[in-house]
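I hope you will forgive my troubling you with a question about protein structure. The record follows directly beneath this note:
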Amino acid sequence: MIRKYVLPLLALIGLLFGVYTVLASNKPVNPAQPVADPAASPFKAYVAGAGLVEASTQNIAVGTPTSGVVTDIPVLVGGRVHSHDVLFKLDDRSSRAELIVRQAALASAKAKLERLEGLPRPEDVPAAEARVHEADATLADLRNQLALAESLGDKRAISMEEMGRRRFAVDAGVARVAEAKAQLQLLEAGAWKPDVEIAKADVASAEALVRATEIELDRLVVRAPVDGEVLQVNVRLGEYAQAGPLDKPLMVMGGVDRLHVRIDVDENDAWRFRPKAAAVAYVRGNRELRTELQFERVEPYVVPKRSLTGDSTERVDTRVLQVIYSFDPNSIPIYVGQQMDVFIDAEVSRS
């Protein structure tokens, strides 16, 4: 009974279920609706490209010329800064201590130079003149004693030894007079010129060291290179700021009074691009937000494509020509770093 009726019935049910499953799985799948309708070109012939919004000065990755601990960050993200405004400061205690030492060395060098240039001191001259007068008086006394000895009629009244001693004393007195006069002339002549030049060189060297330390102190203060807006702050108080190129810059800033959009034109379409051609950009995600673009420049070196849209049909192994257009940031709500859909007029005008 079971083999005759039940098993064939179960087989029939399984067959019907399989047919139903096959038919149900063959139904066409409705494509997913896009999050936002794609933008449409307003031109009959056009070159399309993805554009990346950047500052008019390009996005400046601010770094530091020397490594150190951050002690002050007076700016905030989104804040406007002027050229040479302080962005952040590094620990400068060591450099300030060195500056004090070098300033003291400079003061000592200047004092030595001033002392040399002030020679002779007025109070030193009378003492030197007095030594000359003393030497002259001593010499006159010695000559007088020698003359008395030589005037004696009897040569035996004084020994030859004493006579020689008096003559030698006169010669010594003459030398002392000459020495005193030479010392007076040396004093009146002032400092020796080579000594003054050496002292001036010491002052210049000390001033250079002070200036070098002041420059090093100034290098510990990172300032804004241009007028613009702080776009990113990736460093915090107390953190160690590393010098050199970084994967994540310490700060990013740029001029935002007028924004630029960097458009990647596929190398296959580069020949169709015409400089100064009209262009329109749409905000990614809302094709109702559009703005007219003004041509700025072409970067004539074709580079590998880096800005990817994520489209499954997008070619990633291609090179692109980068074209720069600008627009008024007040015309649409847009931020630096956003992508835009850009269409450039490629229709050849007929004369």
